[in-house]
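// run 5 | inverse folding | seed 20
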């Protein structure tokens, strides 16, 4: 089969010909890949490859997969050959979706939503993360406003749409000025240029004297401090990129701030409860996608052979919307 492999010594991606993988556990299924979404975490494998045991030059990444089951392990229940499925994969495993066939633990599959494979594959990492951040962590339905650092990216774009769906009155999101119309189209009420010098002041002008109730940092770096500083008394923040250090933020203790870490894929290695967090987010988000409440705007479609170049470009953190590669189907 054709696959995009990663060579860690050279830090490069390569189009290769590999054998179709065999089932490795009794819970595995073999998936014929229809489409696979590209995400920043895929591009940054150079930063986390040590998490993968015995990684070699035949390692295949690709976490967000739309496909069809071709074979099932002996302990797989509820799924059969021919079922169309969607999933967010385990980055610690070798046989991801940047290939014609992939392996996945059946306990984290969801039924494929009634949308085309490209639309579906654009959603798991970014969409399910946004759902877990806003619903499971921020209890967004009870908030009046939300600040999103990185509104034009995959997670940020879905978070804005979810906030709009849950009836949030004020949605402040950062992006370059060129993407402000895009943010408005998703539901942002106040797009702001992340490069302006008085960004914190501008956010607080919008929020009013009580500050923001909730914030989401989907970028990392200095944005973590910004996402914390815009919060008012007992505000809540979700951090997706870095490990939170509350002591580094201005008066975090005095304001009684609450900080939440979120790593969607960590559910794979935290038992039944962890796996269920992935599945439940996937089911809920897919329902919104099927109902047209969530869309995948600015969707760029590429071929398998283009994945390597696209991943290297993603490291520049300038991707707007989502990139999906079509594989088969």
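// decoded
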């Amino acid at each position: 089969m054709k696959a995009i492999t990663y060579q860690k010594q050279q830090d490069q991606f390569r189009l290769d010909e590999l054998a179709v993988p065999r089932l490795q556990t009794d819970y595995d299924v073999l998936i014929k890949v229809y489409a696979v979404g590209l995400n920043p975490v895929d591009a940054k494998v150079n930063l986390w490859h040590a998490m993968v045991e015995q990684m070699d030059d035949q390692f295949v990444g690709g976490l967000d997969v739309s496909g069809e089951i071709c074979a099932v392990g002996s302990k797989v229940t509820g799924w059969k050959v021919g079922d169309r499925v969607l999933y967010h994969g385990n980055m610690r495993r070798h046989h991801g979706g940047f290939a014609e066939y992939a392996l996945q633990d059946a306990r984290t599959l969801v039924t494929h939503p009634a949308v085309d494979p490209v639309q579906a594959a654009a959603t798991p990492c970014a969409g399910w993360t946004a759902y877990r951040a806003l619903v499971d962590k921020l209890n967004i339905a009870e908030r009046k406003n939300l600040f999103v650092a990185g509104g034009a990216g995959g997670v940020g774009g879905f978070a804005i749409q979810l906030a709009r769906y849950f009836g949030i009155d004020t949605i402040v999101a950062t992006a370059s000025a060129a993407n402000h119309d895009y943010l408005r189209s998703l539901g942002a009420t106040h797009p702001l240029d992340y490069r302006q010098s008085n960004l914190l002041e501008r956010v607080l002008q919008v929020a009013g004297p009580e500050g923001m109730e909730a914030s989401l940092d989907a970028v990392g770096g200095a944005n973590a401090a910004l996402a914390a500083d815009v919060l008012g008394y007992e505000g809540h923040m979700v951090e997706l990129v870095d490990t939170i250090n509350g002591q580094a933020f201005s008066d975090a203790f005095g304001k009684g701030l609450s900080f939440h870490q979120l790593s969607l894929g960590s559910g794979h290695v935290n038992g039944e409860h962890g796996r269920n967090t992935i599945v439940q987010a996937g089911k809920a988000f897919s329902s919104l996608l099927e109902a047209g409440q969530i869309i995948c705007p600015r969707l760029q479609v590429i071929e398998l052979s283009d994945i390597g170049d696209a991943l290297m470009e993603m490291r520049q953190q300038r991707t707007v919307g989502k990139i999906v590669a079509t594989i088969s189907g």
